[in-house]
Amino acid sequence: MLTAIIDYESGNLHSAEKAFQRMASEVGAGDVVVTADPDVIAGADRLVLPGDGAFPACANALRSSGAFAAMIESVEVKARPFLGICVGMQLMAREGLEYTPTEGLGWIDGVVERIVPSEAGMKVPHMGWNDLVIDTPHPVLNGVETGEHAYFVHSYQMRVETPAQRLAHVDYGGEVTAIVARDTMVGFQFHPEKSAATGLRMIANFLTWAP
């Protein structure tokens, strides 16, 4: 069993690597590697796509990387379990509107747009701990309940247009999408590797998920 964390030069992957390796060891889910090698990605049993920075820069970096074609085939053809984190989740959308409209992967029926809190004085970026509200049950949420905390750092959020594809949200001057899913794909807007026991539980759930 191999989990590949895709390195396309869009973020510091060290903390994610350590968290996934720790949980893989605890639940007997095999090895975890950070890689840009298309052959390793093509042969992996599940994929993780992190992302930090602006949507257009991450989208362009991913599409120009050698990892892109292998990732698309693994997810769309082989139906390997996939997890997007932060901007990695946002890239799953149909389109991102940060700076300039940019095509996403189109795996989730949604658009990534700037967070506009309804309450005056609420700062953007949305940064820090927030309470998850579970909308739709899913295996990656086993053992996770409404009210548990996750750690967020973002200025843009995915507006999901197919409600069944939103698993959870948080309240930040309005509902802000926290988790999305479709078929063998799931995405976390927050950083599970920085979300203490709740985040580690969701990492373990993903590593043992057999869709």
DSSP, total strands: 14
Provide the CATH architecture: 3-Layer(aba) Sandwich
In terms of DSSP E residues, the strand content is 25-35%
How do the strands line up in the largest sheet? 2-1-3-4-14-13-12-9
Order of helices and strands: EHEHEHHEHEEEEEEEEEEH
CATH topology group: Rossmann fold
Spans where pLDDT lies below 50 across 5 or more residues: none
Structural class: alpha/beta
Mean pLDDT: 96
How is the biggest beta sheet arranged?
Answer: 8 strands, mixed
Tally of individual helices = 6
Task: Indicate how many domains the architecture comprises.
Answer: 1
The gross shape turns out to be: globular
Give the helix proportion (percent range). 25-40%
Any idea of the CATH class? Alpha Beta
Question: Can you tell me the CATH superfamily?
Answer: Class I glutamine amidotransferase (GATase) domain
Distance between the termini: 15 Å
